[in-house]
């Protein structure tokens, strides 16, 4: 049975698809540079399917491939998709911060179903790939994640304890005082550099997310986006730092596809 409708989230780095077959939601993703491959797949498996678009490159896809496809706002689609996946897990949040970690990061407020972007940063998956390559020479996402999981950020970062030792610190000594502050020569391993980079990304995202949560009196922060896929080191740090400031971190299975799923269900 071929899908009748496909939701496509065309981002800066990845093309994410969500479609339903026999009552089951299925997902696919391609690098944005593999548009020809993804379009060939669509022609073979779902030539007559209705297509709904969202994401930064949705206008381009509409112009080049799907002239009749509707385009849905990116943040609303992500919120719809996230709410649907939460509901499937028996969870429901009326008000929450939605942190979308893609190539960059967007911080959105969902208030009673109304979604608005309240903050954001250029720090995200693109930072991991670009700066990760400069620091380690590696260009594969899975490899960078593996390096980060094996490294120790404190070997590359100056920690609060490093500054105050041997005396007591007025704040948590395990916090970062300076990202990459110990890199003064070539003695820092690739693993530690990758761990430091992942830590910096997590700290930045949590800082922005928790600031938005405090400002809007929200307790729950939902983290989604393609950068979290099979990225245990980043997820662990987001969870740790969010809980440290008294907020509740929430992660969704298949959260990378919230935008595509939201377009599918719109």
TrEMBL record:
UniProt GO MF annotations: ATP binding; pantothenate kinase activity
Pfam families cross-referenced by the UniProt entry: Fumble
EC numbers, comma separated: 2.7.1.33
Keywords: ATP-binding, Coenzyme A biosynthesis, Cytoplasm, Kinase, Nucleotide-binding, Transferase
SUPFAM superfamilies: Actin-like ATPase domain
GO cellular component, one term: cytosol
Name of the top EC class for this enzyme: transferase
Gene3D superfamilies: 3.30.420.40
GO terms (BP aspect): coenzyme A biosynthetic process
NCBIfam families: PRK13317.1
PANTHER family according to UniProt: 4'-PHOSPHOPANTETHEINE PHOSPHATASE, PANTOTHENATE KINASE
Protein name: Type II pantothenate kinase
Gene: coaW
């Amino acid at each position: 049975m071929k899908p009748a409708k496909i939701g496509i989230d065309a981002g800066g780095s990845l093309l994410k698809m969500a479609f339903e077959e026999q009552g089951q939601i299925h997902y696919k993703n391609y690098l944005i540079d593999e548009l020809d491959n993804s379009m060939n797949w669509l022609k073979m498996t779902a030539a007559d399917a209705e297509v709904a678009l969202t994401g930064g490159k949705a206008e381009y896809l509409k112009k080049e491939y799907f002239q009749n496809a509707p385009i849905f706002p990116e943040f609303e689609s992500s919120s719809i998709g996230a709410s649907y996946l939460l509901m499937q897990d028996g969870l429901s949040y009326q008000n929450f911060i939605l942190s979308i970690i893609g190539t960059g990061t967007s911080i959105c407020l969902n208030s009673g179903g109304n979604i608005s972007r309240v903050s954001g940063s250029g720090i995200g998956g693109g930072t991991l790939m670009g700066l990760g390559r400069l620091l380690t020479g590696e260009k594969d996402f899975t490899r960078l994640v593996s390096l980060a999981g094996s490294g120790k950020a404190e070997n590359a970062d100056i920690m609060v304890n490093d500054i105050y030792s041997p005396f007591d610190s007025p704040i948590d000594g395990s916090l970062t005082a300076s990202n990459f502050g110990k890199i003064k020569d070539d003695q820092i391993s690739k693993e530690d550099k990758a761990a430091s980079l992942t830590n910096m990304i997590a700290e930045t995202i949590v800082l922005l997310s928790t600031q938005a949560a405090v400002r809007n009196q929200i307790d729950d922060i939902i983290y989604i986006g393609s950068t979290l896929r099979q990225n245990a080191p980043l997820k662990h740090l987001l969870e740790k730092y969010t809980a440290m400031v008294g907020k509740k971190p929430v992660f969704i299975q298949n959260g990378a596809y919230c935008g595509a799923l939201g377009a599918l269900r719109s």
